[in-house]
Structure formats: C-alpha cells, structure tokens
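re: ur question from yesterday

yeah so i grabbed the chain u mentioned. its 159 aa long if i counted rite. heres the sequnce exactly as i have it in my notes:
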Amino acid sequence: MLHSRLIVFLLRAVLVVAALWLVVILTLSMPGGLSDEPAPMRIPVQIALSAVILCVLAVIVCIWRLLTLLRRDRIFSGASRRWVDAIVWALGIGWSVLAVLAITATSIIYFTPELRDPGVPMVLFGIVVLAAVPVLLMLVMRGLLRQATDYRAELEEVI
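ran it thru and got these structure tokens back, copy pasting raw so excuse formatting
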C-alpha cells in the first residue's frame, strides 16, 4: 500500500507542476509569443490554442478526482465513470480543435506559394495523429472501467 501511496503522491505532484506550467503558458507565454503575428491570424490561433490548453487542464482536474476516488476505494463506481467520460470529452474536444487548427494552417501553407513547404504540414499531421492516441486509449480504458465496475457489482451481489 505504501508503494501505491507514493505513486499517487508523485502523480499529484506532477499534475500540479503541469497545471502551473500550462497556466503560465496560457497567461504569459502564449500572448507574448503570438504578439508578432498579424491580428487576423493571432486572435483565432490564440483562441484555438487556449481551448486546447483548457481541455488539458480539465483532464488534469479529472485525473485528480479519479485519484481521490482511488484513495477512497471508490474507483469502481458510477462517479469514476463520469470523470472518465469527462476526460474523453475534453480530449476529444481538444483533439478536434487541434485538427481544425492543423488543417487550417496546412491549407494556408498549401495555397500560399511563398510558404509552400511540405515539412510543416507533415509535422502537423504527425501531431494530430499522435494526439489521437490518448483519445482512443481513454475510450478503451472507459470500456475496461465499465466492465470492471459491472464485475465488481456482480461480485458484491454474490458476497
């Protein structure tokens, strides 16, 4: 049990650091980094990137709540399903915004002869494909949690 408590403590510490880092990026770094862009490009990009960061922050909050349920031995309950569903939705929304941003950037690069370079669209494609992995993984994990919750409920009925 001590081993799992240490892991939960370390995970919570990493979640706090990640959340603080994302808040700094959202409030200080990103607005300054995008200030050189023309206004028509800066505002939509800042909104899209802010939405993605807010989705990641929502995932961090959901993971924190799941860790609390784990500590209380309620991980196999309806409450944990709701938090996992929230993670799936946040990841799905963040992935969708990221995909639209990548498609838009690729279109601008493709239709602007001075910018036409296959490197950036290929990197954006890779980012979008890799960002789909956590979404799909959480869908699988949600199914596993549903099965485990059902099995636990059946076991409690037998006992």
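noticed a couple things. The first helix runs from residue 2 to 33. also Residues 2-158 form one domain.
anyway ttyl
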